[in-house]
Amino acid sequence: MSNTEHTAPTILSNNYRLPFLQGGFPTYGVMPEVLDQMVHIDASRNILYFEVPKAGCSGIKKYMISMAGGNSEFGTSPQLVHDRRISPLRSPSQYPIDQWFRLMHGEGKRFTFVRNPYARIISAYLDKFFGEEATYHNQLLGFPPDHKMTLKQLLYSLMQIADHHRDIHFMSQDYLTGSGSIKFDLIGQLENFNLYFRLISRKFYFDSTPDMKNLIEFGRHHSTKSSEYILDQEEIDLISCIYANDFKRFGYFLLGPVSN
């Protein structure tokens, strides 16, 4: 079999989601509903992308959808890249348990992208509390619909919520990627997206010329200009505490108090 030839696995209908959600499938410490939402599978190539929101996921999914034969031209509705109903990429619950296990332990090629935790939480905050979803996220945390959320208020609220009960955009990257229980073939960092994604396209898709300009421009539809937000020391300390496992596991430097 050549590098470009693949045998498609058995894909089950969505009627099989209930047994998956009720238990029995290995979920690697992640809530089944979250795992099913955040893992995107190219069925013909056995490629599994573990999505981390606010870490380049839009461009990654656009590329995978295109390579899987789907329509990746979303025109004036770039948010459709996140709509699982129209995506050709599969969810874990659409696989028999034995096949899902083999994907996770040998047959599958697993990757994810992570991001500096300071930048990621700023991006999520600006995206979710200064846009169309602000009312929803305010109410989710027990605030009035028209509340003007500050980052400190958000961080203190998140400290009171267990990681797996937070909105996916505020879950830790460590939790979303199995807390070390999943063996990844590659963990890319958004800060070096260009280099890491070229490696993924060559290693998994045998594609040496991905349209990086198009992917990066598409990702800008979801840009929040997080680099312009200046954290104060209290915000830095809160983020360092809430996302301590992200800093430790993925090698990002903690910014502690300034010492004399």
Automatic annotation (TrEMBL):
State what protein this is by name: Sulfotransferase family protein
The record's section on Pfam families has: Sulfotransfer_2 (PF03567)
Q: Which organism is it from?
A: Acetobacter ghanensis
Recite the UniProt keywords alphabetically. Answer: Glycoprotein, Golgi apparatus, Membrane, Transferase, Transmembrane, Transmembrane helix
Q: Where in the cell is it found?
A: Golgi apparatus membrane
The record describes its membrane topology as: Single-pass type II membrane protein
Q: Which domain of life is it from?
A: Bacteria
Q: Please verify whether the record's keywords include Transmembrane.
A: yes
Tell me the classification of the organism that encodes this protein.
Bacteria, Pseudomonadati, Pseudomonadota, Alphaproteobacteria, Acetobacterales
Predominant cellular place of this UniProt entry's protein: Golgi
Database matches in InterPro entries? Carb_sulfotrans_8-10 (IPR018011), P-loop_NTPase (IPR027417), Sulfotransferase (IPR005331)
